[in-house]
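Reminder to self: tokens first, then the designed residues, so the page reads top to bottom the way the pipeline ran.
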């Protein structure tokens, strides 16, 4: 059984949640996929300060001790990851961008993007982005 985790970046459980739910229902209908939707709003995520400590010393050096690592753990445990966001001013919603910014440490990993956390471990993960 493959596990897919979807991050929904909306402020409410409405269109983005509905779209990602339908997508996951179709995936689960294959019979080989289980899934979970995480609402980013339920997690404490501070905006990046731009200190670059994660670039220089690794992600453990981030001054924030919030829910970033709990989310990263959930993504790492998944075979597939969906980033789903409403379109806000022609871009993803700010909270989704905040989370993406907090993943910037992966962009400085040796061999990025091939060796990033998205492909680390014993298998390659799939990443899909939905904008609603
Ligand atoms: C602050 C704000 C900015 C938005 N900007 C855009 C936009 O640039 N383009 C667009 O097509 N819709 C835009 N919308 C509409 C939302 O993307 C749309 O209502 C979306 O379905 C909301 O998702 P939700 O129901 O998951 O919150 C905006 C809505 C808000 C509140």
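Designed residues (132 positions):
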């Amino acid at each position: 059984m493959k596990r897919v985790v979807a991050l929904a970046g909306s402020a409410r459980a409405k269109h983005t949640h509905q779209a990602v739910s339908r997508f996951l229902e179709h995936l689960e209908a294959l019979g080989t996929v289980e899934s979970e939707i995480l609402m980013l709003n339920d997690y404490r995520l501070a905006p990046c300060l731009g200190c670059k400590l994660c670039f220089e010393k690794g992600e453990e050096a981030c001054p924030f001790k919030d829910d970033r690592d709990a989310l990263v753990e959930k993504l790492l445990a998944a075979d597939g990851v969906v980033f789903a966001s409403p379109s806000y001013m022609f871009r993803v919603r700010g909270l989704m961008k905040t989370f993406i910014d907090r993943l910037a440490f992966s962009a400085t990993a040796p061999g990025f993007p091939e060796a990033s956390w998205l492909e680390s471990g014993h298998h390659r993960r799939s990443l899909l982005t939905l904008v609603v």
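The first helix runs from residue 15 to 28.
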